[in-house]
């Protein structure tokens, strides 16, 4: 049973992937239409060349690390957060329940998962239309973990020149020791990442205890190793290849771009012609632009592109080149912003910041925003008014009706009462729909939070109280302490 649930869960996860693949294919087809081609996309990166990003400092670099810390604190910390004697966030596949603080979702609540995916898609569409690839540059797991792995690499192997020199050097005991230390660090970090990931699908304390005692289950072991291997391979080896060649979003994004979308832009009119010069030299007198052709913008790029060649699929919008170029401009006493966040229209028409902001409110942005707000409001309203109670009424089909010793007609039912909240509740059962019908036995049941209670119900009515055959009857289950928590379900009462 558990294996079938897991297979069903994997199937559910695959559906959004299939849908997204269809969107990607449609996006690629649309992006190839000449009438829709807005930017000149250039492919100038050698796919076989290894990229050695140079360390850089600056406001955008600090913002990237802020998001690295925020995302990882949330990811590694939330699974350890206790909440009413259990894990605060847990997608418990074995019990088929999703705990999110006080909210408990059951398989019948899959609609919320679907709505959440739609909400995420429209959020991505909106931010891409307005600000380009901010997701890729700051919060994408590939970017975040690549930053972390590069930091480990820099600490162990050194800065960019030392890393290049080490890779070019022949193998030696020193090189073997340095490489072994780096990969051991990567593997340990990846394994902990895999454990954390699986800890959102089974209690993290149980998982860690099973690993310490060397008694983990087959499924948990597989997913820990699988996710660790994916982290190690993607962030340690694929890195820029993932963004340049594997991830479909780089192609799909251009369907949502237009000349007023914020991108990393090189100001060609100001920067060209490029060339070196002494500090303090007048570039106009030399027939040069502000670009000194130092190449630092290329050295700091995590995908190894030259942003001066125009917008490219490989640009993830991380703004490392902006920090690098601004530092060079400061040293040369030139104005900052040769490379900057801007739009195609703003660069060509010299728009001010205020004009850029005004042009952001265009039809597609307004439509995305309206849909996003409406969807968010609907989900919030649905969750706020959601009754933490579900009831199933099962009629005894072996004996439709029977005559009791006192001559009354009895029907037997079984009620399954699902307390989808997080606190223990006491429910009262009442009936209606059949005149004079009464409920025999216990009419109250206590159900712990997140559990299912089962109660037998015998309904008795006098002969002739209703017509022969099936008559609609209702069962109302109400929280004794809070009458707003109430559900009414229908069934049939059989009269001979």
Provide the descriptors you would attach to this structure in a database record:
single chain; 496 residues; alpha+beta; Immunoglobulin-like; 2 domains; five-stranded antiparallel sheet; elongated; disordered N terminus
Domain count: the total is 2
| Poorly predicted sequence stretches spanning 5 or more consecutive residues | 1-44
The biggest beta sheet, please?
5 strands, antiparallel
SS element count, helices = 17
Radius of gyration: 31 Å
| Average residue pLDDT | 87
Query: What's the shape?
Result: elongated
Structure, explained:
- This protein is an alpha+beta fold.
- The protein has two domains: 2-255 and 364-380, no CATH class; 389-495, Sandwich (Immunoglobulin-like).
- Helix content is 46%, strand content 18%.
- It is built from 17 helices and 16 strands.
- The chain has helices spanning 2-31, 59-78, 110-131, 134-139, 141-157, 160-168, 173-198, 204-212, 218-238, 240-246, 249-252, 268-271, 296-299, 320-331, 344-349, 353-360, 363-384; strands spanning 82-83, 86-87, 89-92, 97-100, 103-105, 263-266, 339-342, 389-395, 402-403, 409-419, 425-432, 438-440, 444-447, 452-461, 469-479, 486-495.
- Strands 8, 9, 10, 12 and 14 form a five-stranded antiparallel β-sheet that branches. Strands 13-11-15-16 form a four-stranded antiparallel β-sheet, with no helix packed on it. A three-stranded antiparallel β-sheet has the order 3-4-5, with no helix packed on it.
- A hairpin with a 2-residue loop joins β4 (97-100) and β5 (103-105).
- α5 runs antiparallel to α7 and α7 (173-198) crosses α9.
- The longest helix is centred in the N-terminal third of the chain and has 30 residues, at 2-31.
- The protein is elongated, with a radius of gyration of 31 Å.
- It starts with a helix and ends with a strand.
């Amino acid at each position: 049973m558990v294996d079938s649930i897991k297979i069903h869960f994997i199937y559910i996860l695959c559906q959004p992937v299939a849908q997204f693949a269809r969107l990607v294919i449609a996006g690629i087809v649309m992006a190839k239409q000449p009438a829709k081609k807005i930017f000149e996309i250039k492919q100038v990166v050698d796919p076989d060349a290894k990229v050695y990003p140079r360390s850089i400092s600056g406001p955008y670099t600090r913002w990237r690390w802020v998001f690295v810390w925020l995302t990882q604190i949330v990811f590694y910390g939330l699974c350890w957060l206790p909440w009413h004697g259990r894990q605060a966030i847990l997608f418990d596949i074995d019990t088929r329940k999703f705990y999110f603080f006080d909210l408990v979702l059951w398989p019948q609540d899959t609609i919320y998962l679907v709505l959440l995916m739609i909400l995420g898609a429209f959020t991505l569409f909106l931010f891409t239309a307005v600000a380009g690839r901010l997701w890729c540059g700051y919060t994408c797991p590939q970017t975040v973990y690549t930053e972390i792995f590069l930091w480990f690499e820099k600490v162990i192997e050194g800065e960019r020149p030392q890393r290049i020199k080490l890779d070019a050097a022949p193998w030696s005991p020193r090189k073997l020791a340095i490489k072994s230390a780096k990969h051991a660090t990567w593997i340990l970090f990846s394994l902990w990442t895999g454990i954390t990931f699986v800890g959102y699908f089974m209690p993290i304390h149980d998982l860690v205890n099973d690993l310490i005692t060397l008694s983990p289950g087959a499924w948990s072991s597989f997913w820990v190793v699988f996710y660790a291997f994916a982290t190690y391979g993607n962030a340690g080896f694929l890195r820029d290849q993932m963004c340049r060649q594997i991830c479909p979003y780089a192609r799909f994004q251009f369907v949502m771009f237009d000349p007023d979308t914020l991108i990393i832009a090189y100001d060609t009119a100001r920067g060209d012609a490029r060339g070196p010069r002494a500090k303090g030299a007048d570039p106009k007198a030399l027939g040069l632009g502000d670009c000194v052709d130092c190449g630092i913008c290329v050295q700091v790029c995590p995908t190894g592109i030259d942003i001066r060649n125009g917008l490219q699929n490989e640009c993830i919008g991380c703004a490392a080149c902006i920090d690098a170029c601004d530092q060079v401009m400061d040293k040369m006493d030139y104005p900052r912003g040769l490379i900057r966040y801007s739009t195609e229209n703003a660069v060509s028409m010299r728009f001010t910041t205020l004009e850029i902001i005004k042009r952001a409110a265009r039809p597609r942005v307004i439509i995305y925003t309206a849909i996003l707000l409406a969807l968010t409001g609907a989900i919030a309203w649905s969750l706020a008014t959601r009754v933490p109670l579900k009831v199933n009424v099962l009629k005894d089909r072996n004996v439709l009706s029977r005559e009791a010793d006192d001559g009354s007609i009895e029907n037997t039912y079984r009620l399954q009462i699902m307390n989808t909240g997080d606190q223990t509740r006491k429910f009262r059962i009442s009936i209606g729909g059949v005149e004079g019908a009464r409920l025999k036995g216990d009419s109250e049941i206590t159900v712990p939070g997140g559990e299912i209670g089962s109660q037998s119900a015998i309904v008795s009515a006098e002969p002739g109280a209703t017509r022969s055959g099936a008559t609609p009857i209702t069962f109302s289950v109400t929280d004794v302490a809070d009458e707003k928590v109430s559900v009414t379900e229908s069934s049939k009462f059989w009269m001979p």
